[in-house]
Amino acid sequence: MVVKKQLVLGVGALLLATSACSxxxxxxxxxGGAGPSETLPENxxxxxxxxxxxxxxPDSQYDVVGHPLFTVSxxxxxxxxxxxxxxxxxxxxxxxxxxxxxxxxxEDVRERLEDSEGPTFDxxxxxxxxxxxxxxxxxxxxxxxxxxxxxxxNPDDVQIDCYWSPIDFTVFEISLAEIGVDHPEDVVLDxxxxxx
Length: 196
Prior knowledge:
Blueprint: H1 2-22, E1 35-41, E2 63-65, E3 67-73, E4 89-91, H2 94-104, H3 107-112, E5 124-132, E6 137-144, E7 147-153, E8 158-164, E9 167-175, H4 176-179, E10 188-195
Parallel strand pairs: 7-10
Antiparallel strand pairs: 1-8, 2-6, 3-9, 4-5, 5-9, 6-7
């Protein structure tokens, strides 16, 4: 009898959580549920922190470099969660990128990205990340001497409280000139994610 009550309570809580997630607005491709449950400012911000440029992170001691080529969220395509990137990945050649992309990125994600521009590797490298994101943003930072890291940027003056943080798969392209190196082989990537 106790087990049945716990099961009913557990299912009820799951239904309640699912209902709450479906109330959170998303884009029309979104399956509902991605996003913050509530954003609580610690102090009244002077502007909307969700509209800030991730390259303007005053707390960061490093420069934000490169630009995102594309981002796909698990909230839009469930199989994004299958992209196994426990740590960010650096690509220094087209062959390396093609081999990984064709074998590690699910077909429905590749189909969604058909019209997106991929990395060119013309005097550049690419970095891929797949991390759970709520209101944070992701960028690549330059630590100097060809060392890069993927940073998860928390919005200023905001406490984040999410029901669900879907995985965002993002690929960045970084110019060698921007990070001051001559050859792709001179670039290294930190295997952890930085929080700034």
